Amino acid sequence: MATDASTNRSYGFGTRAVHAGQAPDPSTGAVMTPIFQTSTYAQRAPGDHQGHEYSRVTNPTRSALEGNLAALEGADHAVSFASGVAGIDAILKGLRPGDHVVTTNDLYGGTFRLFRQVFEPFGLRFSFVDLTDPEAVDAAIEPGATKLMWIETPTNPLMRIYDIEALVERAKADGIDVAVDNTFASPYLQQPLALGADMVLHSTTKYIGGHSDLIGGVVCTSREDWHENLRFQLKCAGAVGGPMDSFLTLRGTKTLHLRMQQHCANARRLATFLDAHPKVGRVLYPGLPDHPGHDIAKKQMKDFGGMISFSLTDDAMDKAVAVMTHTKVFTLAESLGGVESLIEHPASMTHASIPPEERRKIGLDDSLIRLSVGVEEEADLLADLDQALQHV
Ligand SMILES: *Cc1c(COP(=O)(O)O)cnc(C)c1O
Q1: Is 56 a catalytic residue?
Q2: Contact (CB, 8 A) for 131 and 154
Q3: What pLDDT is attached to residue 1?
Q4: Which of 200, 143, 198, 201 is nearest to 174 (CA)?
Q5: CA distance 65 to 47
Q6: Cys staple from 147: which of 1, 99, 194, 281, with CB 3.0 to 4.6 Å?
Q7: Which residues lie with the beta carbon below 6 Å from any ligand 1 atom?
Q8: SS3 assignment, position 338
Q9: What are 105-134's pLDDT values in tens digits?
Q10: How far is the CA of 385 from the centre of ligand 1 (A)?
């Protein structure tokens, strides 16, 4: 349900978030899509069934979720996976040994590990470059061999902003497909397919699920060849999300637009507060006017998101730990995008798989602290950070 069939008027984001992919259950009238906890489906005669044969291939709860997420990204198709990295894994299996991928040097740690430690040994090749530098991108592209550009924006944890439209244009000049990890922005803030990208990847574990109660991933695309390939990978390797997780994700998307508005409002206020704090060094938030990606973010995002990274004037790991162990509303934990505020230390937690020399080279400071700003009361979050910073 992306458009009104009788008038062809397309529904707004909030309406799609609540309804797309889901109609009341025809057998009972249940308003919520049921959790179809079944592995197999009765057939009247061999091959004569009601659209589902075996839940590794399709499951009605998962299909409803796929319809919903496709509508949110403006895609013809969505393929739902058991996790974000399972979705990335499936995309990369569409490449062949010798193929080359250009990506950012400021990448989600799990993606970096998958590229480096799983796919390089199978013969895929990767260039990790600063995607804000057109010369570095030109130098990395190997015409004919580069098959995929992998973009993440805003990046994790350095909050760099990459110009999706400009990078798509550069990639297309050499026939390179573009995939965007849109996890940090969510489809509410940024829709890369409309900017020319071929695929969008989400860890639905984060903002889309929104309640820190599931692990999931999705790839959205309007490319028929990629869609067919992703379905094939899902069927062959079986990294499918379960019916319960699909249901919880669907429940999450219904409030995605509301939650994002609050995440953004709270983060904007906290970023301004941190920026003026004497114990805080750099504040990395694209909503701050002096952020190098501010103008591009304004162009390609609806708002600036709920993620903030900052370092301390005294750039020492133990100082960062002192802040993190003294917050009372912010919980010290990995992950992001849930209703509750989280605080973490990339250098020793989420990004520990990046070697220290490489980490420092890209500007990931020892004292860097990453916040996933939740939807609690802004004044409580501000007071909590203020008192925790007293311990530095
Ligand atoms: C969490 C995350 C992933 C991986 O997703 P999982 O659901 O944990 O497998 C990928 N990209 C980004 C940006 C993430 O934050």
Answers
A1: yes
A2: no
A3: 64
A4: 143
A5: 25
A6: 99
A7: 83-85, 108, 110-111, 152, 156, 181, 183-184, 203, 205-206, 215, 217
A8: coil
A9: 888 889 999 999 999 999 999 999 999 999
A10: 26
Domains of the chain: 2-253 (3.40.640.10), 256-389 (3.90.1150.10)
Residues in the chain: 392
Containing H/E element for 200?
strand 199-203
Q: Which of 85, 184, 200, 349 for mutating ligand 1's site (highest number of atoms within 8 Å of CB)? A: 85
Report the C-alpha gap between 219 and 86 in whole angstroms: 10
N-term to C-term CA, the chain: 52
Backbone angles phi, psi at 356, to 5 degrees: -50, -40
3-class DSSP assignment, residue 290: coil
Token pair 């044969």 is at which residue? 53
Q: What are the backbone dihedrals phi and psi of residue 280, each rounded to the nearest 5 degrees, phi first?
A: -100, 135
The contacts of residue 282 (CB under 8 Å, 6+ apart) are: 310, 311, 365
Alpha-helical regions (H) of 36-79: 60-73
Adjacency order of strands within the sheet including 177-181: 77-81, 217-221, 199-203, 177-181, 146-152, 100-104, 125-129
Question: Atom 2, ligand 1: which residue's CA is nearest?
Answer: 203
Closest by alpha carbon to 170, among 201, 195, 204, 207? 195
Distance of CA 16 to the CA centre of its chain: 19
Q: What is the largest CA-CA distance in the chain?
A: 73
Mean pLDDT, residues 82-102: 98
- What would the pLDDT profile of 326-377 be if each residue is shown by its tens digit? 999 999 999 999 999 999 999 988 888 778 888 888 888 999 999 999 999 9
Other beta carbons within 10 angstroms of residue 225's beta carbon come to 11
Between CA 293 and CA 372 the distance in angstroms is 19
* Owner of token pair 């939807």: 375
How many angstroms is it from 31 CA to the middle of ligand 1? 31
- Which two structure tokens, joined as six digits, stand for 377? 């009361």
The pLDDT of residue 133 is: 95
Secondary structure element (H or E) that encloses residue 151, with its range:
strand 146-152
How far is Cα of residue 15 from the mean position of the Cα atoms in its chain?
Answer: 22
The answer to whether the CB of 207 falls within 8 A of the CB of 67 is: no
